[in-house]
Amino acid sequence: MSKEKAPVTQAIRLLRQHQVSYSEHLYKYEEKGGTRVSARELGVDEHCVIKTLIMEDEHKKPLIVLMHGDREVGTGMLAKQAGVKKISPCDAKTADKHSGYQVGGTSPFGTRASMPVYMEASITELDKIYINGGKRGFLLGLSPQEVIRVLQPVLVQAAAS
Q1: Alpha carbon of 117 to those of 25, 41, 65, 108, 114: distances in Å?
Q2: Are 112 and 100 in contact (CB under 8 A)?
Q3: Residue 29 falls in which region: left (phi positive, over 0), alpha (psi -120 to 50) or beta
Q4: Is the pLDDT reported for residue 3 higher than 80?
Q5: What is the sign, positive or negative, of the torsion defined by CA atoms of 124, 108, 20, 35?
Q6: Per-residue exposure over 130-147, b if at least 16 CB sit within 10 Å of its own CB, e if not
Q7: If you average pLDDT over every residue of the chain, what do you get?
Q8: What φ, ψ does residue 75 adopt, rounded to 5°?
Q9: Do 93 and 107 form a contact (C-beta atoms < 8 A)?
Q10: Whether the model pTM is above 0.85
Q11: Is the pLDDT of residue 161 over 80?
Q12: How far apart are CA 47 and CA 1, in angstroms?
């Protein structure tokens, strides 16, 4: 684990504002490494590392999807549950614009634009999750119940293997 000090990002400011209890985990970020690398670096199960994905519907309206690191989003399943025709991932530049974060460091907390949040329902069954803190190489450990309290996501079943 890195000895450097954890950054104070918009995500951290929002969590402090809501008095959320969390732990800070810095690790060596690897380009295109994803949750596989962060799980390995932190010594945790990749299933507990939660991806924050910025996607959009057919009208280009952005949304946030929280998914287990070892699962893919079934966009058709998600679209059906979100009541839209189609959902697809945003390109990196568009995702950065909506979130205010850089892809690879996107947190669902403290985003630039307010977006609906969809969270894979099975995430709530975990005791502790690791989710991006708003910078590449920086995860936060917290209870999924805190994510629900702060973000009030729509719980969905959209995990594809």
Answers
A1: 23, 27, 6, 8, 9
A2: yes
A3: beta
A4: no
A5: positive
A6: bbbbbbbbbbbbbbbebb
A7: 95
A8: -65, -30
A9: no
A10: yes
A11: no
A12: 20
